[in-house]
Amino acid sequence: MTLQETFSPGATRLAKLIRESRSTVALTGAGVSVPSGIPDFRTPGTGIWENVDPFEVAHIDAFHRDTARFWKFYRPRFDQLGSKTPNAAHAALAELETRGLLRAVVTQNIDRLHRRAGSERVVEVHGSIETCSCTTCGSSYGREAVGALFDEDGVATCPCCMGKVKPDVVLFGELLPEAAMEQANALCEGCDLLICVGSSLEVYPVAGLPSLALNRGARLAIVTQGPTPYDRDATVKLEGDVVDELQGVLAAL
Ligand code: ZN
Fold first, then answer.
1. From ligand 1's centre to the CA of 14, what distance in Å?
2. Which residue has the higher pLDDT, 10 or 7?
3. Pure H helices in 99-200
4. Are both 182 and 216 inside the same structural domain?
5. Peptide bond preceding 9: is omega within 30 degrees of 0, i.e. cis?
């Protein structure tokens, strides 16, 4: 990582907002992990989603209907995700927390990269690949332990009750985990600066979090390429590369 000597005017303004804020929260989406080589599945024709419809294969009904097919698709994807490493955007957010300038990260990403970059307070509203749970008895299994649970049909099976084991990620057709959403809501209601990073802010209920913050008088900063529904509400919008912009903010602080 090279020390950035120049940074965008937006980065300077965001650094000022961070200094002025007493409670800053970051809300991150797929864009923060793209520099780690994890494609945004909403970008058609990229990576692992090239020949499949994620809404079909990653649906809770598909898991129950044909669990072997589900795992056949997901197992390599999880292995691939597990091998990715955090990038300098994750590192910048972890650094802000270390400096006492960021209260928490709320993320839509399931890749654990915020934690691996050193962020301590991370709310994963779509779950994470860290664990899997039995859909019958609720037993939890770490990522490394799951490999031993597959039966000859390629279905991860709970040794306690022979129930089906499912990754602790939110599939289409499932509600978001209640406890995580409550934490996310409370953080956004209690902050005075919400920095949205790498998210198009279009998928509810996460897309409602900036409204919660704005309604309580918080400021909104957006670090995302491309339009979001909140662009007009944002005090500052940074349109550059997410790594460059966040490293720029750190340098400007
Ligand atoms: Zn079980």
1. 48
2. 10
3. 113-117, 143-146, 178-190
4. yes
5. no
Percent of the chain with pLDDT over 70: 92
Q: Which residues of 95-131 are buried (b: 16+ CB within 10 A; e: fewer)?
A: bbbeeebbbbbbbbbbbbbbbebebeebbbbbbbbbe
What confidence score (pLDDT) does residue 5 get?
A: 57
Could you tell me the pTM of the whole model? 0.91
> 20 and 115 share a domain?
yes
How many domains does the chain divide into? 2
Residue 41: which pLDDT band, with cuts at 50, 70 and 90? low
Give residue 127 CA to ligand 1 midpoint distance, Å: 19
Note whether 157 and 230 are same-domain residues. Answer: no
Domain boundary residue, one of 112, 145, 169: 169
**Whether pLDDT at 49 is above 90:** no
Residues recognised as catalytic = 126
Q: Indicate the average pLDDT of the chain.
A: 91
**How far is ligand 1, taken at its centre, from the CA of residue 151, in Å?**
14
